[in-house]
Amino acid sequence: MNKEQFIKKLTTGLQKLPQEEREDIIRDFEEHFFIGGMEGKSEEAISYSLGLPKQIAKELLATYRLEKMEESTTAGNLIRATWAVIGLSFFNIAIVLGPFIALVGIWFAGWATGLSFIVSPLLVLINALLYPVTFDLFELFLSLAFTGVGLFIVIGMLFVTRGLIKGFQRYLKYNVKLVKGGMNYEKH
């Protein structure tokens, strides 16, 4: 593929990036073609040595999404980064999506348990208003104990949530490095 075809496919693959970022990347690749041409290489040889534009675009998009996630760790940025990493290879559907769904399930279960324990006295009081005959002080005191447990669970979930997000960010970065060409082990 010649320079024009390569740049066109790369530009198409980078449409999800901001205009300025996209222009910088295109300039860098045009410079690769210019330097290669100065060295006497053909456009096809340069294109072949750079790789497939579609795969390059996926890798650059994943890297961009990971950087945005690090700048501002929001649920939207985390999900966009996850989808960008999944898009790197078919293999990532199971390797990234599976752990993501499992972590979201654990996160949701922890928060639901903590919050339900906290509102349990309110539910006991509503039950006492609707069915006064069934009111039992033991149930009220037990629900108050559950509230204390629920508060501890919610406090713990704050730390667990932070840890899950940081851990998943590191996992996504590791996965991107792995897909881009394997891990480089440096000897110290």
Low-confidence runs (pLDDT<50, min 5 residues)?
183-188
Assembly type of the chains comes to single chain
- Percent of residues in helices comes to over 70%
Spatial gap, N to C terminus = 41 Å
How would a textbook summarize the main sheet? none
Sheet-strand content, in percent, reads under 5%
Tertiary shape:
rod-shaped
Q: Average the pLDDT over all residues and give the rounded result.
A: 85
Helix-strand category: mainly alpha
Summed up, the domain count is 2
The whole-angstrom Rg is 26 Å
Helix and strand run: HHHHHHHH
Polypeptide structure, described:
The chain crosses the membrane at residues 83-108, 115-134, 140-160. Keywords: Membrane, Transmembrane, Transmembrane helix. It holds the Pfam family HAAS. This is DUF1700 domain-containing protein. The relative contact order is 0.09. Mean pLDDT is 85; it is low at 183-188. The protein has helices at residues 3-13, 19-38, 43-50, 53-71, 75-86, 92-118, 120-130, 137-181. The protein has 8 helices and no strands. It folds into 2 domains: 1-51, no CATH class; 72-188. The chain is rod-shaped, with a radius of gyration of 26 Å. It is mainly alpha-helical and 188 residues long.
